[in-house]
Amino acid sequence: MPSPAQIEVPNSRGVLPNGRARLPEWLRVNLPAGKSQSAFNGTLNIVQGNELHTVCEEAGCPNIHDCWARGTATFMIAGKECTRGCRFCSVETLRQPEPLDAAEPERLADAVERMGLEYVVITVVNRDDQLDGGAEHYRQCVAAVRQRMPAIGIELLCSDLDGNWQALQHLLDDSPLAVFAHNVECVPRLDESVRDPRASFAQSLEVLQRAKLLRPDLWTKSSLMVGLGETNQEVTNAMQQLREVDVELLTLGQYLAPGRPGTRFLPVDRYVTPEQFEIWKAEALELGFRGVASGPLVRSSYRAGLLLEEAKKGKLQQSNEGDVFGSKRDG
Length: 331
Ligand code: SF4
What we know:
This protein is α/β, with parallel strands linked by helices. The protein has helices at about 35-50, 55-60, 65-70, 105-115, 135-150, 165-170, 190-195, 200-215, 230-245, 275-285, 305-315, 320-325; strands at about 55, 75, 80, 90-95, 120-125, 155, 180, 220-225, 250-255, 290-295. It is built from 12 helices and 10 strands. β5, α5 (about 135-150) and β6 form a beta-alpha-beta unit. It starts with about 35 loop residues before the first helix and ends in a 5-residue tail after the last helix. Residues about 1-10, about 315-320 and about 325-330 have low confidence and may be disordered. It binds iron/sulfur cluster. Iron/sulfur cluster (SF4) binds next to α2 and α3.
């Protein structure tokens, strides 16, 4: 696992550590110092001490300094290798990853308890090597957290389970989740170039639709990246399709290539301005989404608990740089 220090986060001038690219100023992040650094280290110690993985590290998330300094992280369960090979994602691909770790649910619950989280996002790697796509293991992880912390809000950012609807039903049956999230990732036209061949917008939409039918009491959530070659109109169309299956929470963020040019990762097609993200936010709210986070550095799990709280209150989610990211940038 790369340590956070090794992750290629652009510095305050927008330059990546290898000097590769100068990013627009709206993609610059502040590195932690002082108390924020201590808090960051505290999160790191718990994650590493409990032998857990996070998508914050594995995906090289640009918000890691902000989130970890606030004592939050998004745990990635079922291993640190994924059976799929999407071209936007830096999580390692293996056809036959390590067997599932039966002790992981308790280690996860212990970490969440020690961090004192009121809300946790748990994401998964695809486990196409498992007959149930990993559903039983995901279920056990969620249950272990809830057993240890009865009042916590739990969001599961799930795989598509390879369209195994029985597994989806098993996963969701009586599960103590607040939010079931599954990301469509990109507009449908770009499925083939962006996602693993086993994934598609249509299948992801069906996952979300079925989840809502199985558990109407859960909030459903999805996420789109931009900067992959889509048009603005295609983003609007994708949002419409998500609303047609009653998805309520949406995040929109800028794709940042995790690897150097010439690797398997797709290059960035464009850097979308904060103003355009605002336009999409307004459109999404108009379409009926209850909570929308839309901004260059927004990621599916970024301040997820806050997004849900705001949606519950029926407030318009403030999601531009200044509102969602600005106030706590220093942790
Ligand atoms: S936005 Fe999500 S993935 Fe990124 S650092 Fe924060 S919690 Fe981790």
